[in-house]
Amino acid sequence: MAELTAKRRRKRHIRLSFGDRVFETVNITLMVLLMVVTLYPFINTLAISLNDASDSIKGGIYLWPRQWTLDNYRFVFEEATIFHATLVSILRTVVGTVLTVMCSAMVAYTISRPEYVLRKFVTVAFILTMYVNGGLIPTFLLMRDLGLVGSFWVYIFPGLVGVFNLIIIRSFIEGLPDNILESAKIDGAGDYRTFFSIVLPLSTPVLATVALFTGVYQWNSWFDVFLYNSSYEKLSTLQYELQKILQNSNASQTAPDFTAAGNTGTSQVTPFSIRATMTIVASVPIMLVYPFLQKYFVKGMIVGGVKE
Protein backbone atom coordinates (compact mmCIF):
# COMPACT_ATOMS: atom_id res chain seq x y z
CA MET A 1 0.00 0.00 0.00
CA ALA A 2 2.85 2.36 0.87
CA GLU A 3 4.61 1.58 -2.43
CA LEU A 4 1.40 2.31 -4.38
CA THR A 5 1.00 5.65 -2.62
CA ALA A 6 4.60 6.56 -3.35
CA LYS A 7 4.14 5.71 -7.05
CA ARG A 8 1.04 7.90 -7.24
CA ARG A 9 2.94 10.79 -5.69
CA ARG A 10 5.79 10.35 -8.18
CA LYS A 11 3.35 10.29 -11.11
CA ARG A 12 1.62 13.41 -9.83
CA HIS A 13 4.99 15.12 -9.44
CA ILE A 14 5.88 14.20 -13.02
CA ARG A 15 2.56 15.49 -14.37
CA LEU A 16 2.99 18.90 -12.75
CA SER A 17 4.10 21.49 -15.25
CA PHE A 18 6.67 24.16 -14.51
CA GLY A 19 3.92 26.75 -14.08
CA ASP A 20 2.09 24.53 -11.57
CA ARG A 21 5.25 24.09 -9.53
CA VAL A 22 5.88 27.83 -9.50
CA PHE A 23 2.30 28.45 -8.42
CA GLU A 24 2.52 25.92 -5.57
CA THR A 25 5.83 27.37 -4.41
CA VAL A 26 4.53 30.94 -4.42
CA ASN A 27 1.28 29.88 -2.77
CA ILE A 28 3.04 28.02 0.05
CA THR A 29 5.46 30.91 0.56
CA LEU A 30 2.63 33.44 0.81
CA MET A 31 0.70 31.24 3.25
CA VAL A 32 3.77 30.86 5.46
CA LEU A 33 4.35 34.63 5.42
CA LEU A 34 0.68 35.25 6.25
CA MET A 35 0.92 32.81 9.16
CA VAL A 36 4.04 34.55 10.48
CA VAL A 37 2.46 38.01 10.18
CA THR A 38 -0.67 36.78 11.96
CA LEU A 39 1.07 34.95 14.79
CA TYR A 40 3.97 37.31 15.47
CA PRO A 41 2.00 40.06 17.34
CA PHE A 42 0.47 37.51 19.70
CA ILE A 43 3.76 35.68 20.32
CA ASN A 44 5.54 38.99 20.86
CA THR A 45 2.89 40.10 23.37
CA LEU A 46 3.14 36.75 25.16
CA ALA A 47 6.92 37.09 25.36
CA ILE A 48 6.64 40.59 26.85
CA SER A 49 4.09 39.42 29.42
CA LEU A 50 6.48 36.66 30.54
CA ASN A 51 9.51 38.94 30.64
CA ASP A 52 10.73 41.04 33.55
CA ALA A 53 8.97 44.42 33.38
CA SER A 54 12.08 46.52 33.98
CA ASP A 55 13.96 44.62 31.31
CA SER A 56 11.07 44.93 28.80
CA ILE A 57 11.45 48.72 28.81
CA LYS A 58 14.85 48.31 27.12
CA GLY A 59 13.14 46.75 24.07
CA GLY A 60 14.60 44.07 21.84
CA ILE A 61 12.12 41.35 22.84
CA TYR A 62 10.67 39.58 19.84
CA LEU A 63 9.69 35.91 20.12
CA TRP A 64 11.31 34.84 23.39
CA PRO A 65 11.46 36.41 26.86
CA ARG A 66 14.90 37.63 27.87
CA GLN A 67 14.30 37.34 31.62
CA TRP A 68 11.53 34.88 32.46
CA THR A 69 9.07 35.82 35.20
CA LEU A 70 5.43 35.38 36.19
CA ASP A 71 5.38 38.56 38.26
CA ASN A 72 3.20 40.39 35.72
CA TYR A 73 0.51 37.72 36.01
CA ARG A 74 0.86 37.62 39.80
CA PHE A 75 0.30 41.35 39.95
CA VAL A 76 -2.86 41.15 37.84
CA PHE A 77 -4.36 38.16 39.64
CA GLU A 78 -3.51 39.43 43.12
CA GLU A 79 -6.33 41.96 42.79
CA ALA A 80 -8.99 40.97 45.30
CA THR A 81 -11.91 41.34 42.88
CA ILE A 82 -10.37 39.74 39.81
CA PHE A 83 -11.68 36.19 40.33
CA HIS A 84 -15.24 37.27 41.12
CA ALA A 85 -15.14 39.60 38.11
CA THR A 86 -13.99 36.66 35.97
CA LEU A 87 -17.00 34.62 37.11
CA VAL A 88 -19.33 37.49 36.23
CA SER A 89 -17.71 37.76 32.78
CA ILE A 90 -18.10 34.04 32.18
CA LEU A 91 -21.74 34.16 33.31
CA ARG A 92 -22.63 37.16 31.13
CA THR A 93 -20.85 35.60 28.16
CA VAL A 94 -22.66 32.27 28.44
CA VAL A 95 -26.11 33.64 29.29
CA GLY A 96 -25.86 36.55 26.87
CA THR A 97 -24.66 34.40 23.98
CA VAL A 98 -27.32 31.70 24.42
CA LEU A 99 -30.23 34.14 24.81
CA THR A 100 -29.04 36.42 22.00
CA VAL A 101 -28.63 33.56 19.53
CA MET A 102 -32.03 32.07 20.39
CA CYS A 103 -33.93 35.37 20.29
CA SER A 104 -32.22 36.53 17.10
CA ALA A 105 -32.91 33.17 15.44
CA MET A 106 -36.61 33.24 16.35
CA VAL A 107 -37.08 36.78 15.03
CA ALA A 108 -35.04 35.96 11.91
CA TYR A 109 -37.22 32.90 11.20
CA THR A 110 -40.37 34.99 11.61
CA ILE A 111 -39.36 37.74 9.16
CA SER A 112 -38.03 35.17 6.68
CA ARG A 113 -41.48 33.59 6.21
CA PRO A 114 -43.27 34.94 3.10
CA GLU A 115 -46.67 34.36 4.75
CA TYR A 116 -45.88 36.94 7.42
CA VAL A 117 -47.47 40.07 5.93
CA LEU A 118 -45.55 42.56 8.11
CA ARG A 119 -42.11 41.07 7.52
CA LYS A 120 -40.91 43.93 5.28
CA PHE A 121 -42.09 46.59 7.71
CA VAL A 122 -40.50 44.83 10.69
CA THR A 123 -37.26 44.32 8.77
CA VAL A 124 -37.05 48.01 7.84
CA ALA A 125 -37.85 49.00 11.43
CA PHE A 126 -34.97 46.88 12.70
CA ILE A 127 -32.54 48.17 10.04
CA LEU A 128 -33.38 51.79 10.88
CA THR A 129 -32.05 51.23 14.40
CA MET A 130 -28.61 50.69 12.87
CA TYR A 131 -28.62 54.29 11.61
CA VAL A 132 -30.73 56.11 14.22
CA ASN A 133 -29.63 55.96 17.84
CA GLY A 134 -31.13 57.71 20.86
CA GLY A 135 -27.72 58.64 22.20
CA LEU A 136 -25.84 57.89 25.39
CA ILE A 137 -27.88 59.93 27.86
CA PRO A 138 -31.36 58.83 26.64
CA THR A 139 -30.15 55.23 26.65
CA PHE A 140 -28.94 55.56 30.23
CA LEU A 141 -32.24 57.13 31.29
CA LEU A 142 -34.13 54.31 29.58
CA MET A 143 -32.06 51.66 31.38
CA ARG A 144 -32.65 53.48 34.67
CA ASP A 145 -36.42 53.74 34.14
CA LEU A 146 -36.55 50.05 33.26
CA GLY A 147 -34.81 49.23 36.53
CA LEU A 148 -31.80 47.68 34.85
CA VAL A 149 -29.14 49.95 36.37
CA GLY A 150 -27.42 48.03 39.13
CA SER A 151 -28.65 44.75 37.67
CA PHE A 152 -26.90 41.89 35.91
CA TRP A 153 -29.55 41.92 33.18
CA VAL A 154 -28.39 45.29 31.87
CA TYR A 155 -25.64 43.28 30.18
CA ILE A 156 -28.15 40.94 28.51
CA PHE A 157 -31.45 42.61 27.60
CA PRO A 158 -30.28 45.59 25.48
CA GLY A 159 -28.56 43.33 22.96
CA LEU A 160 -30.94 40.37 22.82
CA VAL A 161 -31.77 40.97 19.15
CA GLY A 162 -28.80 42.39 17.28
CA VAL A 163 -29.76 43.72 13.84
CA PHE A 164 -26.52 42.56 12.23
CA ASN A 165 -26.99 39.05 13.63
CA LEU A 166 -30.64 39.16 12.59
CA ILE A 167 -29.78 39.90 8.96
CA ILE A 168 -27.15 37.15 8.83
CA ILE A 169 -29.46 34.49 10.27
CA ARG A 170 -32.43 35.58 8.13
CA SER A 171 -30.34 35.39 4.95
CA PHE A 172 -29.18 31.89 5.88
CA ILE A 173 -32.71 30.67 6.66
CA GLU A 174 -34.01 32.09 3.38
CA GLY A 175 -31.36 30.02 1.60
CA LEU A 176 -32.60 26.74 3.09
CA PRO A 177 -34.42 24.41 0.65
CA ASP A 178 -38.13 25.26 0.56
CA ASN A 179 -39.14 21.63 0.02
CA ILE A 180 -37.89 20.71 3.51
CA LEU A 181 -40.10 23.29 5.21
CA GLU A 182 -43.03 22.47 2.94
CA SER A 183 -42.68 18.77 3.75
CA ALA A 184 -42.80 19.59 7.46
CA LYS A 185 -46.04 21.54 6.98
CA ILE A 186 -47.57 18.70 4.96
CA ASP A 187 -46.70 16.32 7.81
CA GLY A 188 -48.60 18.60 10.19
CA ALA A 189 -45.70 20.40 11.89
CA GLY A 190 -46.46 23.88 13.16
CA ASP A 191 -44.11 26.84 13.21
CA TYR A 192 -42.61 25.94 16.59
CA ARG A 193 -41.97 22.33 15.59
CA THR A 194 -40.55 23.41 12.24
CA PHE A 195 -38.27 25.98 13.87
CA PHE A 196 -36.88 23.81 16.66
CA SER A 197 -36.74 20.48 14.81
CA ILE A 198 -35.70 21.56 11.30
CA VAL A 199 -34.55 25.16 11.01
CA LEU A 200 -32.30 25.23 14.08
CA PRO A 201 -30.37 22.01 13.26
CA LEU A 202 -29.85 23.13 9.65
CA SER A 203 -28.77 26.59 10.80
CA THR A 204 -26.05 25.34 13.14
CA PRO A 205 -23.20 26.90 11.10
CA VAL A 206 -24.65 30.41 11.07
CA LEU A 207 -25.73 30.12 14.70
CA ALA A 208 -22.20 29.12 15.66
CA THR A 209 -20.86 32.13 13.78
CA VAL A 210 -23.27 34.50 15.53
CA ALA A 211 -22.49 32.82 18.86
CA LEU A 212 -18.79 33.52 18.33
CA PHE A 213 -19.42 37.18 17.46
CA THR A 214 -21.74 37.61 20.45
CA GLY A 215 -19.45 35.75 22.83
CA VAL A 216 -16.46 37.90 21.87
CA TYR A 217 -18.52 41.06 22.36
CA GLN A 218 -19.85 39.96 25.75
CA TRP A 219 -16.42 38.87 26.95
CA ASN A 220 -14.64 42.05 25.85
CA SER A 221 -17.34 44.55 26.84
CA TRP A 222 -16.47 46.91 29.70
CA PHE A 223 -18.06 50.25 28.80
CA ASP A 224 -21.56 49.16 29.81
CA VAL A 225 -20.15 48.16 33.20
CA PHE A 226 -18.66 51.63 33.52
CA LEU A 227 -21.97 53.29 32.60
CA TYR A 228 -24.44 51.26 34.59
CA ASN A 229 -22.67 49.23 37.28
CA SER A 230 -19.43 51.01 38.15
CA SER A 231 -20.70 51.52 41.72
CA TYR A 232 -21.64 47.85 42.15
CA GLU A 233 -18.50 45.82 42.81
CA LYS A 234 -20.31 42.47 42.71
CA LEU A 235 -21.41 43.17 39.11
CA SER A 236 -17.97 44.19 37.86
CA THR A 237 -16.48 42.17 34.99
CA LEU A 238 -12.96 41.04 34.20
CA GLN A 239 -12.47 43.56 31.41
CA TYR A 240 -13.56 46.45 33.63
CA GLU A 241 -11.23 45.36 36.43
CA LEU A 242 -8.34 45.07 33.97
CA GLN A 243 -9.20 48.51 32.65
CA LYS A 244 -9.03 49.94 36.18
CA ILE A 245 -5.66 48.28 36.78
CA LEU A 246 -4.32 49.79 33.58
CA GLN A 247 -5.66 53.25 34.43
CA ASN A 248 -4.12 53.13 37.89
CA SER A 249 -0.77 52.07 36.49
CA ASN A 250 -0.86 54.80 33.83
CA ALA A 251 -1.73 57.40 36.46
CA SER A 252 1.38 56.59 38.45
CA GLN A 253 3.48 55.71 35.38
CA THR A 254 4.76 52.66 37.28
CA ALA A 255 2.57 50.24 39.16
CA PRO A 256 3.23 49.86 42.90
CA ASP A 257 5.89 47.45 44.06
CA PHE A 258 4.68 44.16 45.40
CA THR A 259 6.19 41.00 46.82
CA ALA A 260 5.60 38.07 44.50
CA ALA A 261 4.25 34.91 46.04
CA GLY A 262 7.06 32.61 47.04
CA ASN A 263 9.62 35.33 46.44
CA THR A 264 11.46 37.21 49.19
CA GLY A 265 12.30 40.14 46.97
CA THR A 266 10.15 42.78 45.37
CA SER A 267 9.25 43.04 41.68
CA GLN A 268 8.08 46.07 39.80
CA VAL A 269 5.63 46.01 36.91
CA THR A 270 5.04 48.77 34.40
CA PRO A 271 2.07 49.89 32.26
CA PHE A 272 3.85 48.38 29.25
CA SER A 273 4.06 44.92 30.85
CA ILE A 274 0.53 45.20 32.27
CA ARG A 275 -0.92 45.92 28.81
CA ALA A 276 0.75 42.83 27.39
CA THR A 277 -0.40 40.68 30.30
CA MET A 278 -3.96 41.99 30.06
CA THR A 279 -4.05 41.24 26.33
CA ILE A 280 -3.11 37.62 26.94
CA VAL A 281 -5.50 37.20 29.88
CA ALA A 282 -8.40 38.66 27.87
CA SER A 283 -7.77 36.78 24.62
CA VAL A 284 -6.86 33.26 25.79
CA PRO A 285 -10.45 32.20 26.74
CA ILE A 286 -11.74 33.16 23.29
CA MET A 287 -8.86 31.32 21.64
CA LEU A 288 -9.76 28.19 23.61
CA VAL A 289 -13.39 28.33 22.47
CA TYR A 290 -12.75 29.11 18.80
CA PRO A 291 -11.43 25.65 17.74
CA PHE A 292 -14.69 24.05 18.87
CA LEU A 293 -16.70 26.39 16.61
CA GLN A 294 -14.35 26.20 13.64
CA LYS A 295 -15.81 22.89 12.44
CA TYR A 296 -19.24 24.48 12.03
CA PHE A 297 -17.81 27.07 9.63
CA VAL A 298 -16.56 24.25 7.41
CA LYS A 299 -19.83 22.37 7.77
CA GLY A 300 -21.70 25.43 6.56
CA MET A 301 -20.26 24.90 3.07
CA ILE A 302 -22.10 21.59 2.62
CA VAL A 303 -25.30 22.13 4.65
CA GLY A 304 -28.48 22.44 2.64
CA GLY A 305 -27.45 20.34 -0.35
CA VAL A 306 -30.83 18.83 -1.26
CA LYS A 307 -31.62 17.59 -4.73
CA GLU A 308 -34.91 18.59 -6.28
UniProtKB/TrEMBL annotation:
Membrane topology reported for the UniProt record: Multi-pass membrane protein
The keyword Transmembrane helix is annotated on this UniProt entry: yes
Matches recorded under Pfam families: BPD_transp_1 (PF00528)
PROSITE patterns according to UniProt: ABC_TM1
Entries under InterPro entries matching the protein: MetI-like, MetI-like_sf
Keyword Membrane: yes
Places the protein is found: Cell membrane
Sequence intervals crossing the membrane: 21-43, 82-109, 121-140, 152-173, 194-219, 272-293
Record keywords: Cell membrane, Membrane, Transmembrane, Transmembrane helix, Transport
CDD domains: TM_PBP2
Domain ABC transmembrane type-1: 86-293
UniProt xrefs under PANTHER family: ABC TRANSPORTER PERMEASE PROTEIN MG189-RELATED-RELATED (PTHR43744), POLYGALACTURONAN_RHAMNOGALACTURONAN TRANSPORT SYSTEM PERMEASE PROTEIN YTCP (PTHR43744:SF9)
Family as reported in the entry's similarity comment: Belongs to the binding-protein-dependent transport system permease family.
Protein's name in the database: Carbohydrate ABC transporter permease
Species for this entry: Paenibacillus thermoaerophilus
